[in-house]
TrEMBL record:
Protein name: DUF6286 domain-containing protein
Record's keyword terms, sorted: Membrane, Transmembrane, Transmembrane helix
Keyword Cytoplasm: no
Tagged with keyword Transmembrane: yes
InterPro entries xref list: DUF6286
DUF6286 domain segment(s): 101-205
Region (Disordered): 1-23
Transmembrane segments: 42-63, 91-115
Amino acid sequence: MSEPRPPEGTTTQRLPVLDKTPTALPPLLPESSGRFWSARRVPAGIVALLLLAGAGVLLYDIAAVRAHRPAMHWRRALARQLAERPLDDTWVLVGAGIAAAVGLWLIVLAVTPGLRELLPMRRPHLDVRAGLRREAAALVLRDRAMDVSGVRAVRVRMRRKKADVRAVSHFRDLDDVHADLDVVLADTVRGLGLARPPALSVHVRRPGRKG
């Protein structure tokens, strides 16, 4: 039998074949999730205001001296003190120590990220960043620990690299409660989606006697 021909004046077109192969999901990028950097507006604003005020007063005094007016008393006293006091004087050493401490503090603020309360999470995409506060992570761990049979009270202290969990059990064997907590909390930490999951430190004890 011959194939039916299309009517005259019509055209045929072969449709494209769709590829039904499932596309893979983008991998998570835990290594690219660094800590969040603080804007440090308060320290920067304080330093800027102090420098602006000091520079303004000094420029005003210099302009006054250029206009044949006497210099301010504080600048004359400071110049006299710097000229008369030796370098091993107590007040000179104290002032140098304070200046060095302030300078070291500013350097530490400049080179450290800050925002220690915010834990970075894994990044499914390069243009997406998310963070979880330590209080929220500790609350999740505490709620999951309270669901374990035999646990009466839980106290969680969440650090950047370690989660310290201290539980009180009023029944069941302590080793069994400790094993259940290890399993439940390890699964909870993985479920938080943190870029660098903290290490778990679990301690279980009996409640203290009243009186």
